[in-house]
Amino acid sequence: xxxxxxxxxxxxSGEPKILDFGVARTTDSDAxxxxxxxxxxxxxxxxxxYMSPEQTxxxxxxxxxxSDVYSLGIVLYELLTGRLPYELKGxxxxxxxxxIQEQDPAAPSSIERALRGDIETILLRTxxxxxxxRYQSASALAADLERHLRDEPILARPASTAYALRKFAKRNKxxxxxxxxxxxxxxxxxxxxxxxxxxxIEARQDARTQEEAAEVQADAMRAVTLxxxxxxxxxxxxxxxxxxxxxxxxxxxxxxxxxPLVNHPRIELAVRTTLGRVYLSLGDFPDAEVHLRxxxxxxxxxxxxxxxxxxxRSAYAAFLFARKDLAEAASVADDVLARQRxxxxxxxxxxxxxxxxxxxxxxxxxxxxxxxxxxxxxxxRAAGLHGDGSRVCNxxxxxxxxxxxxxxxxxxxxxxxxxxxxxxxxxxxxxDPLTIETLIEVGHVALDREVDLPRTxxxxxxxxxxxxxxxxxxHPVTTEALFLLARASLANSDLDASEAFLRDVFxxxxxxxxxxxxxxxxxxxxxxxxxxxxxxxxxxxPFIELYLNTEPAAQGDEGITEARDQLAHxxxxxxxxxxxxxxxxxVLAQRxxxxxxxxAETLSTCRSLGETLAALGRNDEAESxxxxxxxxxxxxxxxxxxRAVNALADYARFLADVxxxxxxxxxxxxxxNAVEDAFPPGFTRIGALKSEYGRFLLRNGRYGxxxxxxxxxFTIFQGTxxxxxxxxxxxxxxxxxxxxxxxxxxxxRAFERQVSGG
Length: 758
What we know:
By secondary structure, the protein is mostly helical. Among the domains are: 5-158, Orthogonal Bundle (Transferase(Phosphotransferase), domain 1), CATH 1.10.510.10; 167-387, Tetratricopeptide repeat domain (Serine Threonine Protein Phosphatase 5, Tetratricopeptide repeat, Alpha Horseshoe); 687-758, no CATH class. Helix content is 70%, strand content 1%. The protein contains 34 helices and four strands. A two-stranded antiparallel sheet has the order 1-2. The protein has a two-stranded antiparallel ribbon with strand order 3-4. A hairpin with a 5-residue loop joins β1 (8-10) and β2 (16-18). It is extended and about 110 Å long. The two termini are 68 Å apart.
C-alpha cells in the first residue's frame, strides 16, 4: 500500500478509510514528499517520506505487512509530533534513501516531552529498520496501542543497549572499527602493561613491592572499566542529534588521561601508547605524534628492557615509518627488536609485531631481500601464535606482496595480493580496513604490470569507494587509492582526469601528512608532469618550485633530481637558457653520481645539455654532449632502436643549425636508414623524422629526395593525425612549396585538391 495522510480519510463517524489507488496515481516526484513512479521490478514504489527502509532499497520481493506497519508509524509520528521523523527537504533521492535506511529518527520525546514512556516505545518499535523487530501486523500495533490506552503493560520494549550498539556498528563501520581499536586496544594495553609489571616483580619477596603491584593491577582494571564505559557512553545511540565520529570518540578518550584512576606511570604509558597507535591507524599524524612522544618521554623512566617501554618505542618506530623517516625508524625498530627478543622471547606477540615492522621498513628503504626475510620469519611465528588465517598473518602477507612489487616480481606479487584479498573477503568481509588495503594493492600491482587497464581502473574505483566510506576521504589509504586512479587515468591518456585526481590528492595529503611528506611530494611531482604533458608549462612551474623548496635536497633523491630536470625544461622553453643550463648541469652531476654515466636518465640529460649549450652558442661543448648521447644509446640499445634514432635526429638537427650541411646529411641518412626498424610500421614517429629530413633536403635544394621522404611522411600522417597537427601541417606546406619551386603546377593543384578533399 501507498500509506500516507492524503490516502487516509476519516468518516463522520470516526472510521478511517484507506484509499490506496496504487503508485501510478501519484504525480509529485520530488524527494521531499513525492512518489516514485517507476513500476519496474526492483525499483522504488511509493511516497518517499512514508516508505520503509526495504522499500527504498527497491526490494519488492521482501515487502509485506510489516512495511505497512512502518508507514503507519510514520503517519502516527507525524500526527503526534507535527513533523516527519526525517528531514528530507531539498535532499536528492539517493541521499534521502540512505537517510531512511541508516539514520535513526529523533526520539518523539525530544520534540514533545509528553510523549515519553510507552507511546514513544510503541512509535519507535514501528520504525525499526529491520522488519523482524517491528510489530508483525497492523493488528499487533493496534493491540499494543489499546493496552497503552487501558494503562496496561505494553508488549513493546525499548531496544537494549547491546542491540543499539550492534545497530550502530552496522550503520557506521568506520566508527565501530575505531571503537574496537580504541576500547579493546586501551583495555588490552592496560592489562598487558600491568601483567608485565607484575611479572617483573614476581620473584621479589619485598612485601611493600608486592602490595604496590597489586594496587597498580587493581587500578588498571578499574581504568579499563572506565575507558570502555566512557567510550560506549560517548556514542550511546540514545543520545540523539549528534553524529558521532571516530575522532569524537578519541577526543573523549583523551580525557581519560586526567582521570584519578590513571594514577601510575605504567597505566599512563599504556594509555598514551595505545591512543597514539589508534590515532596513527586513523591517519591522524599530529595527535598520534603528541601521544607517542609523551609515551616515549615517560618510557624513559623505565628500565631499558622493560616490555612496556619497548612497546612504546615500537609504536614510535611505526609512527616514524608512517612519516617516512625511514633511517630513524629502522634504527629504533632494530634496537627494540633485539631487546624484545631478550626480554620476551622470539615468539611473543610484541616481538613478532616489531619484526614485521622492521621488514616493512627495510622493504620500503629498498633492501627488499632483508625486508622479505624478516616478513617471512614474522609470518611463520605469527601463524603459530595467532593462527594462519588471522588478520595479523594476512597483514604480513600483504606487506610481502608489496615487497615483491617493489622488487619488480610483479607476477608473484599479484598472486600473493589476490590470495590475501580472497582470505580477507572470506573471513572478514569487504569493509574491513585490511581488505580495502589489499584490494588497493591488487590494483597497484595490476597497474604496474600494465595489463587490462579498464579492469584495473574498475578495481581501483571500487577500492577508493570502500576506503572513502569506511575510513574517510582524508585517510592515507584512501588518498593512495585516489593517487593510483590518477596514474591509471594518465596511462589511459586521460590527462584532465589525472590532473583533477592529483590536485585532490595533493590538497588532502597536504592537510593530513604535510607538504614535506614523501607521499605528498610524489603527488606534487606527478601533477607537474601531467601539467607539462598538457602543455600547461606556466601552471607547472610553481608546483615544481614548491617541490624543490619544501625540504632540503637529499643526496641521491631522484625525485628532487627529476623535479630539477622538469624545471630546467620549463626554463629552456621560456628562453631562460642560463638558468636551464645551471639546472641541467646539477641534474647531470647528480645522475652520474647516483645512476652512473651510461644510465638512460643520464644520457637523456646529455641530450638536454647539448640543446641548451647550442642555444647559448657554445657549440663545441654542445656537440660533445650530442655525441655522448648517440654513442651511449647505440652501445646500450643498438643503432636501430628508438632512443638511438632520436639521439641521431638531435645531433643531425644541431649540425644543420650550425651550417655543417654535409655532416648533417650523413647523420640524417643514418637516422632514416634505422628508423623503419626502430618503430612499428606506420608509427607516427617514423613520419615525423622522415618529414624532418625531407624539409632539410628541400631547404638545401635536393628536391627529388625531398619529395620521396615528404610523401612517405604524408602517407603515414593521413592515417594517424589530423591536418591541424603541426608536423602534418608543416609536411603539407613543404610538399606544396616543393612543387612550386620545381614548377610542377599540375601536381601542386592535384595535391591541394587531395588535401582539401576536392
